[in-house]
Every structure is written in structure tokens, then in C-alpha cells.
Amino acid sequence: MQPDWPQEVHRALGKAQVRIVGYVPDAGHSRLIELCQGDRKMLSVVLTTEEEGIGLAAGAWLGGEKSVLLMQSSGVGNVINAAGVLKTCRIPLVMIVTMRGEEGEFNTWQVPMGTATPAVLEAMGVSVQRAARAEEVAPLVSDSLKNPHATAVLISQLVIGIKSFQE
Amino acid sequence: MILHRRQVVKTLLSERGDLLVVAGLGSTAWDITAAGDAPLNFPLWGAMGQAAMIGLGLALAQPRRRVLVITGDGEMLMGIGSLATIGVQQPSNLTLVVIDNEHYGETGMQDTHTAHGVDLAGVAQACGFKYSKTTSSLKTLRSIVHEGAGPNFAVVKVAAEKLPLVLPPLDGVALKDRFRRALLGPQADLD
């Protein structure tokens, strides 16, 4: 049976005392978003663009709270300039990124940003971890939450499934 | 009466108590520094458009402290979506003050959108801020910043003037660490 990665990640966030969760919705994140919204110890902050999650994380850390940012890979393009603050001020943030535009993607418009995602993150000084299988996601998130710098955990499209345009 | 930005900011920050202050990059970062550099100031040298969101993160992490974001009209326009995000969260301890000179002061004084009628206080009001006005009453503004149940938003129209730079420390890690130590005490170095 496929491991329940959203539940495992939610548990890992609770264990690391993450109380602020910024997100721009993605179908692949829907269950994790629901789990965070249903957790009275967590504040889920819906954003108009992923870039806002960088400011949210920087402010939360100034105030003593660790946060995470949930988004899909297209959102990585929206955070580039703001992400500089994570490196300049050394602010820890874990971005949990569901991938689009990988092998099997039907929507070719998703491919350029999906392909560039790891390079863009690394160019901005964000370290990149890749989860190719469901059971890898939560342990990578747990490890990344210990980093004093920004880290992105990329969740392969093979884990979340290819978006269908048939329904 | 034309207001001057340095005087407005100085008035807001005098006898500031334990107020936490974030300033957007450019002129407002110099303004808060001219009023007196302090450990609980976080002046931005980059990340244009993020001042309001940094204020939100801080306000959510520190619900018992008052948080003030002072930023310019150009910086606020770049992060205009964050007004909607703050409207959803309704942090009662957060106030945004836009020092609005209707120009991009750091890049050659080009007009911003507010020079052409865009009403930022109207946007904030529509996003659900509890108080949102364009005001020239510094007395009202001080009471909103220090006591008003937020989220609050105020635009203060000021003269478009080029002033001597008063630069805060440049090192981002040092700015962040001194802020956290002043706010969190020894715990700042244990997380």
C-alpha cells in the first residue's frame, strides 16, 4: 500500500513545532492543507502568490516561529527575488513543492518551469531535496526542518499522480 | 499643510515602547533609521514588496506585541496582494503605514500609481482592514499604531523630497540576529 505521505508530513511538522503554514493551493497538496487547517496548533495562511510565503517566513522567524511553505513547482518562479532574503539574512524555511511538468505531463505549458525548478532554487541558494517515492517525503521534510538555511523538498509527479484532463 | 516623511516617522516612533518595526526598502528604511536605529527595527535592503508580509509573519508569531510596518507607496504597490492575505488573517496587532510621496524616490522620482489616483486605503478597506484611511492627523495615527484593534492601514501623503541617506546596518544576518535576541532573549540562539 502507498504510504500516506500527507499524514506523515503533518505529523513531522507537529513534531518540529511548526505553527505557521503558508500555502498556495495545489491538488497534490490538498490533503496536507486540510490536515494543517484542521490542526488547532497551526495557522494556515492562504497566499495570493507564493512570493508572500517568503515574507511570511521571514517575519515568523523574526518572531521566533518556524514556518513552511506549500506550493507547486510553477510557484518557484514567483519567489525568486524575494528568496534572496532567506540567504542574506539566513532564515530557515522548508518549501514543500509538488512537481509539475515532469515526465508524463499533459500540459506542455507546465514543462519549462517544472524543468527549471531545481536550478532556479539552487541559483538562489536554496538547497534542494528530491522525493521520488511517497515514503521519502516525510523523512526529507523532517531532516530539512533541522537546517539553519532554506531548503526545498521537491515531490515527484510520480508520487502525487499526473493531472488528468479527461474529467 | 504639507507633511515631511522624516517628521511623520519620528513622531510615530517616539516613545515607542516595545513596538516591533519593519520598514520597506528604500526611503522608509532610511526614515526609521533617522528616527533612531534600534534592535527592534528590521529595515529591508531588498525583497521589495515583502514588508507587509514580514509584518504579518511577525504579528502572527507574536500576537501579544504591537507590530508596525512603515513602507513606501511603490513598495506597497508591489505587494498589493498581501493586503488580501492580511484581510483573511485579521491580525489585531498589526498596523501598516504607507508614507506616500507618489513617487519612486530611489530610482529617479518617477510617478507611482498613487500619483494617478490609485487609492491604497480604499484597497485595504475592501480587503477587510478594521481601520483604513488616508490621514494627516499624526495624533490619530499614533493612537492607531499603539492601541487600535487591527489590522490597521493608513496612508500619509508626504512631500516628494530627496533627503540625505541615513543608512541602517547592512548585514542581514546581523540585523535578524539582533532583532531576535532583543525580542526572544537567549532562546533566539537555541532554536
The SS-based structural class of chain A is: alpha/beta
Rg over C-alpha atoms of chain A, rounded to the nearest angstrom = 15 Å
Most extensive interface, chain pair and sizes: A-B, 32 and 40 residues
**Mean pLDDT of chain B, nearest integer?**
97
Summarize the main sheet of chain A.
6 strands, parallel
- Estimate nothing, just give the exact number of structural domains of chain B: 1
Separate helix tally of chain B:
8
What is the secondary structure topology, with strand pairs?
The complex is a heterodimer of chains A (167) and B (191).
Chain A: H1 5-15, E1 20-23, H2 30-37, E2 43-46, H3 51-62, E3 67-72, H4 73-76, H5 80-88, E4 94-98, H6 111-123, E5 127-131, H7 134-144, E6 151-155, H8 157-160
Parallel strand pairs in A: 1-2, 1-3, 3-4, 4-6, 5-6
Helix pairs in contact in A: 1-2, 1-7, 3-5
Chain B: H1 5-13, E1 20-23, H2 27-34, E2 41-43, H3 51-61, E3 67-72, H4 73-78, H5 81-89, E4 94-100, E5 103-104, E6 110-111, H6 120-126, E7 131-134, H7 138-147, E8 152-157, H8 172-184
Parallel strand pairs in B: 1-2, 1-3, 3-4, 4-8, 7-8
Antiparallel strand pairs in B: 5-6
Structure notes:
The complex is a heterodimer of chains A (167) and B (191). Chain A has 167 residues and is an alpha/beta fold. Chain A has one domain: Thiamin diphosphate (ThDP)-binding fold, Pyr/PP domains (Rossmann fold). Chain A is built from eight helices and six strands. Chain B has one domain (5-189): Thiamin diphosphate (ThDP)-binding fold, Pyr/PP domains (Rossmann fold, 3-Layer(aba) Sandwich), CATH 3.40.50. Chain B is 38% helix and 18% strand. Chain B contains eight helices and eight strands; from the N terminus they run αβαβαβααβββαβαβα. Chain B is globular, with a radius of gyration of 15 Å. The interface between A and B is large, with 32 and 40 residues.
